[in-house]
Structures are given as C-alpha cells and as structure tokens.
Write a structure and sequence with these properties.
Arc Repressor Mutant, subunit A; 289 residues; flat; DNA-binding; 3 strands; Tscrpt_reg_AraC-type_HTH; mainly alpha; ChrB_C
C-alpha cells in the first residue's frame, strides 16, 4: 500500500506513517511531493493521499489526521490514544491539550530544521514515535522527580504560589491592558508574535504570561487568540479586497494555504473559497442601476 502527502513533514506527516506501519500495514510505502502535485501523483502511483484538504485521510473539525486513522481502523491501544492527544496538540498549535505537545513540536521542528531530506527525516522521526509509544505504554504515570527528596518541597512551594495568586484573581493586572494594546498595534504589521520578546517588554516571566493569558483573553491561549485575530483580519480582507486566498493567507501570517484553510474552516465552518463565493452571492446585483 502506497501513501502520499506534501513535502517537508513535521508532525502529522511523520506520526501518521508511524501509526500506519505499526497498526495498519507494516509494508506501507510513503511518498512526499510538493503540495500541488499530491492529487495527480496519487492517481499516477495508485497511492492514498493524506494530510491535505479535501481527501478522506485529513483533519476533521479539531481532530488531526492521526486521530482519523485511529478512528478509521478502530485502534484501541491505550498508549496510542494518549499519543493522539499529544499529536493533535502539537499539530494544531493547541499545546493545552497535552503538556507533552509543546515538547513534541519543539523536537519535530528542530529535526526538520536539521534534516532536509524528507525520507531521512521520516526514518529518524519514526524513532521519536517509537520512544513516545514506549513512554505512553510503560512510563505515562511516572514523573521525573518521583523519587527525588526535593519533590515535596517543590509541590509545597507551588501550592503556596497558587493560593497567593487565587487571592488576587479578581484584580485585573496592568499588563493585560498593555498586552491588548501591543496586539492591537502590531497585529497588522507583526504577524509573527514573539512571546519571549513580549514577556521582556512587559517585564514578565514567559511561563507566567503563558499560564495567565487565557484568564483575560476570551479564555483562549496565546496561540489560539492570535489565530482568532488573524482569521478576523482574513475575513475583512476577503470582504474588502480582490486578493487571492494565497495572498490573504500570507498577509495574515499563516505558513501555507493548507494551514490557513484548516484554521479558517475551524473558526467559520467554511473553507475560505466557499466563504468568498457565498459572500459574492449575497451581494445585491447593482447592474443597470
């Protein structure tokens, strides 16, 4: 069985091959090609396309392609179900889904940066998912400090910190207003927000800012809030310009049109192209007036 997807894999396009080889077809072959060649090459090579829009094996709502394969092949392995949440969080930039998601993203991004050959990247990446599977199978409940004499001291200190913060919960910190102004001022000109730089500008610890952010910004984490702002800008551009959807994806800071399409549909329920067509249909015909 051959499978085909777009080039330069990072998360889903390595996690899915691992899942397929381990639970679906251990002789499966994987092919990476440029995005605009996937469908034609799939027909030519009799391969199954995956992790691109408008094919069976892809994202559905907030689920990743990895999630769909688990459901499609009725994979019940508890360790795989643990991994599914981690992969979903890493692949969709929702690191609040699983605390391990941020680490998987960091390792995957670094691996892709170091290895330029997609097939070597896949070979190396499979080792990461073998390790993650072993952890999820045997070590999921174990903590690094489990046998450390400092563990209780750390938990006591953290508990005291949380109680202190809870007492101040009703008071809105000054940094919230400052951060809203920064986002408002820079969303049109600086789409690649740097959390570390923003933390330095606000004189806050990055971990504290990341943890407290959702309390004051629509109950969203930093990444989801910025994506919400970007989608709102994309809607404005669709409504007020004739820019192509590729250019709108670029202007709103998305890495590629596929990612833009997925996030846009998640927020609006429609693909950008469908949204634009419906918008055009809804406009009154002014010809002859």
């Amino acid at each position: 069985m051959k499978w085909i997807t777009r080039e330069r894999p990072k998360i889903d396009r390595i996690a899915c091959p691992w899942l397929i080889k381990k639970f679906v077809d251990d002789q499966a072959e994987f092919i990476y090609v440029p995005f605009n060649e996937v469908i034609n090459k799939a027909k030519e090579l009799d391969a199954i396309p995956f992790d691109i829009p408008d094919v069976e094996f892809t994202h559905y709502n907030e689920q990743s392609t990895f999630d769909y394969i688990v459901k499609k092949y009725n994979i019940k392995d508890p360790a795989v179900l643990v991994m599914a949440g981690i992969v979903r969080g890493a692949d969709t930039d929702r690191h609040n889904i699983a605390k391990e998601s941020a680490g998987l993203w960091a390792i995957s991004a670094g691996l892709a940066f170091n290895i330029k050959n997609d097939y070597k990247l896949l070979e190396t990446g499979l080792l990461i998912y073998d390790a993650l599977y072993s952890w999820a199978t045997h070590l999921y409940t174990e903590r690094h400090l489990q046998n450390s004499p400092f563990e209780n001291l750390l938990y006591e200190a953290y508990d005291k910190f949380l109680k202190t913060k809870k007492a101040d919960k009703k008071k809105i910190p000054n940094w919230v207003k400052e951060l809203k102004e920064i986002i408002q001022d820079q969303v049109d000109t600086q789409l690649a927000f740097d959390m570390k730089k923003i933390s330095n500008d606000l004189e806050l610890n990055p971990s504290y800012l990341s943890r407290e952010f959702s309390k004051y910004f629509d109950d969203l984490n930093f990444g989801d809030y910025i994506r919400k702002i970007r989608i709102e800008k994309a809607i404005t551009l669709i409504q007020s310009s004739n820019y192509s959807l590729t250019k709108i994806a670029y202007l709103t800071g998305f890495s590629d049109q596929s990612h833009f399409t997925r996030i846009f549909k998640l927020h609006t329920g429609k693909n950008p192209s469908v949204y634009r067509k419906n918008l055009i249909k809804s406009k009154p015909d002014t010809k002859g007036n």
